[in-house]
User: Which sequence fits this backbone?
């Protein structure tokens, strides 16, 4: 029994298509086969959904498209170049944010460990006896100061022991030999240097002659007066 052509319904003998429909279909394929484009790379695919290279890469488990944006790429990496660069930038920002969080944590731990419980003659509370002596010296000599005024530059923030607003001078009293404190000290010194901030440093050995040390240091910074 003859078959019916699935295209036109005519008698097709033993075939799915009659002779006329077969040649018409073949002519259409021959004409349009080169217009078939690979759905991934848009190159000629010879009538297939994927070209030979994309099919081969797919069979071998190679990433044909970027796993982030979905765009076709010609290498075996998971990300295209654009997404790779963007990811690097994002990772750098994440690392920087984490470093900032660590620094902030160090400051919080230090400020929590050393409570401001020492009272100065003008009523301020500071974190050590050495700071009391510095605050009292400034008060007696009528030099305005702000205790632990927050300073923030380029994403970093610290709390200097003293800030003299009229002279734009920062004063740090390095009164501890604790390892974590020494790390914080080095970071703060670098912060002042990088941001070109005027810093007066007081160490433990300066406390015995604190008034003389402060007078000499402040005079070098342009503050001259009759000291009390």
Assistant:
């Amino acid at each position: 029994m003859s078959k019916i052509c699935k295209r036109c319904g005519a008698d097709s003998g033993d075939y799915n298509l009659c002779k006329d429909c077969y040649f018409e279909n073949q002519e259409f394929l021959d004409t349009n086969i080169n217009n078939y484009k690979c759905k991934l790379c848009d190159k000629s695919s010879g009538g297939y959904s994927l070209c030979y290279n994309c099919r081969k890469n797919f069979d071998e488990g190679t990433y044909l498209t970027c796993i982030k944006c979905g765009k076709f790429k010609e290498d075996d990496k998971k990300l295209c170049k654009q997404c790779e660069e963007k990811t690097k930038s994002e990772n750098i920002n994440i690392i920087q944010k984490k470093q900032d969080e660590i620094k902030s944590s160090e400051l919080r731990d230090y400020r929590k460990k050393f409570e401001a419980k020492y009272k100065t003659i003008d009523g301020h509370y500071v974190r050590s006896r050495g700071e009391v002596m510095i605050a009292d010296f400034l008060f007696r000599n009528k030099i305005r100061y702000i205790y632990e005024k927050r300073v923030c530059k380029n994403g970093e923030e610290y709390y200097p022991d003293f800030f003299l607003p009229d002279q734009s001078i920062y004063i740090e009293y390095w009164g501890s030999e604790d390892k974590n404190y020494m790390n914080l000290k080095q970071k703060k010194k670098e912060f002042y240097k990088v941001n070109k901030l005027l810093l007066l440093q007081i160490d433990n050995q300066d406390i015995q002659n604190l008034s003389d040390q402060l007078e000499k240091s402040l005079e070098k910074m342009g503050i001259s007066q009759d000291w009390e």
About this structure: DSSP finds six helices and ten strands in the chain. The longest strand covers residues 169-174. The mean pLDDT is 79. Residues 116 and 127 are 4 Å apart (CA to CA).
